[in-house]
Every structure is written in C-alpha cells, then in structure tokens.
Amino acid sequence: MNDPFEIVKEDVEQALEQSNDMMYDWDRLRKQSSSTKPNSELDYIKQDLYNIFNSVEQDLSDLQSTVDIARQNPQKFGLDSAKLAARQKFIDTSFDKMKTPAQQDSNNSTNHMIIDFAAQQQQQQIILEQQDEHMDSILGTVRNLRGIAGAMNTELDDQAILLDEVDTMVDGTQSRLASARRRVNDFLRKSQGTFPPFNIYL
Questions:
Q1: What single-letter DSSP state applies at residue 14?
Q2: Is 68 helix (H, G, I), strand (E, B) or coil?
Q3: What digits encode the pLDDT tens for the residues 158-190?
Q4: pLDDT tens per residue across span 95-132
Q5: A Gene Ontology CC term for this entry (predicted)?
Q6: Which of 28, 56, 81, 182 is most buried, judged by most C-beta within 10 A?
C-alpha cells in the first residue's frame, strides 16, 4: 500500500517545480509587455499561479496535520524519529520555497507577483467574512420574522378566545331577553281582563 504522505509529497514537488517555470514566464512577459496595455497571457499565468499556490499551501497544511498526529504515536504508523524529522523538514523547506520570492529585492517583478497573490488572498478572506456577516444578518431576520409570526399566532388565538366569550355572552343575553319577553307576555295575558290591551316591544 502506498504511503499517502509520499503521494502528496510528490504532488507538492511537481507543483512547486511548475510554479517556478511559470514564475519565469510571468516575469519575462511582464518585462516585455507595456505597463498600460493589458496582456491576457500574463493574466492567465497569474491566475494559474494563484491556484497552484493555494493548492500547495493546503497540501502542506494537510501534511503538517498528519505529522502532528503521527508524533503522538509513531509506532502505530510505523514511523521512527528520523522519518518524522525528514517529513517535517520537507514541509518546512516547501513552505520556504513559497516564501523565497517574497524575500527578493522589492524592485523585482516576481516579488510583485507574490505581493499581488497575498493581496488577493486577503481580499478573498474579506469577501468570505462579509458573506458570513451577511448570512448572520439573514438568519437574524428569519429569527425575528419567526418571533413576529409566533406573536401574531398568539394574538389571533387570544382574539378567537375573546370572540368565543362574546358569542357566549350574546347567547346568554338573547336567552334572558327571550325569557323576559315570555314573562311579560304571560303577565299581559293574565291582566287583559283588568287593564286595557297594549303591546310591549323589546
């Protein structure tokens, strides 16, 4: 069974070698092209370099995690201290290779490429943070709407109970009026021989 570390290590080495070649091409095209005229090939190489650097950085971070885990129980993974040290050295060296262009003279155009790359990474991070804040705002609005809907449902339930109580009161009043009307009519019938007839309207 192939060691996953060695597989990823080989991918990182190939990517770094490819990035060096692309850096050379990017630097050459940058010097040849006019500063005021856009160069599509230059932009294409730049974007490819961004993608390579992002991929290598993620791969190295994953490799570092595996080394940290292996250090806790080397026997479990069949590794001794020498192998762990060699793996750590590869990770550190690879990170240094990515940083080396940034340590060159500030007038070097390759360094501008790295600065550009770092600026884009920072911009992407800002965009992600803004998206997170926007999502939090949306979730807050949804929670508020749920609260309002719950309050409205409670109010509607209260109003339904109140209407039921009013209906009950009206039914009781109508019943009492009907009873009073019957008593008055009974009284009138009994009194027809004594008092002149008249009508009662309720």
A1: H
A2: helix
A3: 777 877 776 777 677 777 777 767 776 666 666
A4: 888 775 544 434 444 555 555 555 566 666 677 777 77
A5: trans-Golgi network
A6: 56
